[in-house]
Amino acid sequence: MKTTHAAKVLWDLRAGESAQVTGFDEALSEAYQGRIMEFGFHPGTLVRCLLTPGFGAPRVYAISNSVFSLDRDVALAVFVAPGGLSGVDA
User: Fold this and answer.
1) Can you name the residues that pair with 48 across neighbouring β-strands?
2) CA dihedral angle for residue 10, residue 29, residue 3, residue 9, rounded to 10 degrees
3) What is the pLDDT of residue 4?
4) CB distance 1 to 33 below 8 Å
5) Distance of CA 51 to CAs 11, 15, 17, 26, 73, Å?
6) Are 37 and 74 in contact (CB under 8 A)?
7) What's the whole-model pTM score?
8) Cβ–Cβ < 8 Å for 86, 16
9) DSSP secondary structure code for residue 11 in this structure
10) How many CB atoms are closer than 10 A to CB 54?
11) Which DSSP helix (H) or strand (E) runs through 38?
């Protein structure tokens, strides 16, 4: 699934914020897109940022019943729509 633009990317979320996955940047290879989708990052799915450690370290996200750490390059290629409710389990 490819999207040409987005208002926000996964990396933009701060700890405690939630958003809905809307698609992927064309720069993210199809293999990576498939792997990310295997993790549960499907368009329409709610994702919550759990931890933003700083200094470019990977960030931690909750999606479905799983927790994943994604590096900056991958998280910049996952488009999200803001508006998920903070405090709601992702």
Assistant:
1) 18, 62
2) 10
3) 44
4) yes
5) 11, 5, 10, 26, 17
6) no
7) 0.83
8) yes
9) G
10) 7
11) helix 30-39
Domains of the chain and any CATH numbers: 8-84 (2.30.30.90)
DSSP 85: P
- What residue type is assigned to position 8 of the chain? K
The strand pairing partners of 51, in sequence order, are 60
Which residue type, as a one-letter code, is found at position 81? A
Average pLDDT over residues 49-76: 95
Is the Cβ–Cβ distance between 80 and 13 less than 8 Å?
yes
Q: How far apart are CA 66 and CA 73, in angstroms?
A: 20
Are 59 and 11 contacting, i.e. CB atoms less than 8 angstroms apart? Answer: yes
pLDDT average, residue stretch 31-53 = 95
